[in-house]
Structure formats: structure tokens, C-alpha cells
Amino acid sequence: MTGSGPSGAPQARFEDGLRFLAAALALDLDHRHSAAIVSTACDAIQCFLVAFEAAARRRLPDPQGEVARLRGQLEALLTPRQTPEDAARNALVAARLARDQAARLLPRLID
User: Fold this and answer.
1) What distance in Å separates the CA atoms of residue 95 and residue 77, rounded to the nearest whole number?
2) What 3-state class would DSSP assign to 31?
């Protein structure tokens, strides 16, 4: 579902991200393959990043440092030689942080 105006793409991609995150969480609950969890959580993160890109273009501030916190979690996700379970956990935490920050940014992008 794509809205009209400049907020349409970030909103639509946010909704896509929610669906990917829900799928990743369902895979985690079912104790499915860690690689599938990581892949699906990363798809969610990519969707949420659309809101970050729009916020950067508008130079919106990040006074609580949430973007820096997300960056740290993404660096943890990219750590080599981690167990598949750790990678899945790091991916889910990063996807949740990205979702939360994108949700905070979306209303400011509509203004």
C-alpha cells in the first residue's frame, strides 16, 4: 500500500518491514534455521532504512542517539565468526531497533 506525497514511500516500506520482522519473529519462535531468521530480519532492516534515508535528506536531529545505538547493533550483526544463534539474536535486536526508530521518524517525515 503506497500513500501519496513524499511520505508514501517511507510509510509503505515501513509496513513491508513490519511484515518481514513478523516473519523473522515467527521463525525464531518456531526455532527454525538461524540463517532464515537473519535473512528475513535483514530484509526488515532494509525496509526501515528508507525512513532513515528520508530523515537524513531532511537533516532531522537524533538527540537521543538512537541511530548511533542502532549502528552499534548492526556492527554486532556483522561480527565475523559468531554462532548462528548469536547472528539471529543480533539480527532480531537490530531489526527491532530499526523498527522503533523508523516509527519515531515517520510522523516527522509527514510534516
Assistant:
1) 10
2) coil
Longest dimension (CA), the chain: 44
User: pLDDT (tens digit, 9 = 90+) per residue, 27-76?
Assistant: 999 887 899 999 999 999 999 989 888 888 888 887 677 777 788 888 88
**Type of residue at 52:** F
Cell numbers representing residue 86 in the block:
548469536
Length of the chain: 111
Cell 518481514 sits on residue: 20
pTM of the model: 0.81
42 φψ region: left (φ > 0), alpha (ψ -120 to 50), beta (else): alpha
Query: Is 21 within 8 Å of 44 (Cβ atoms)?
Result: yes
- Let me know: does 78 contact 24? Beta carbons within 8 Å: no
Are 41 and 20 spatial neighbours (Cβ–Cβ below 8 Å)?
Answer: yes
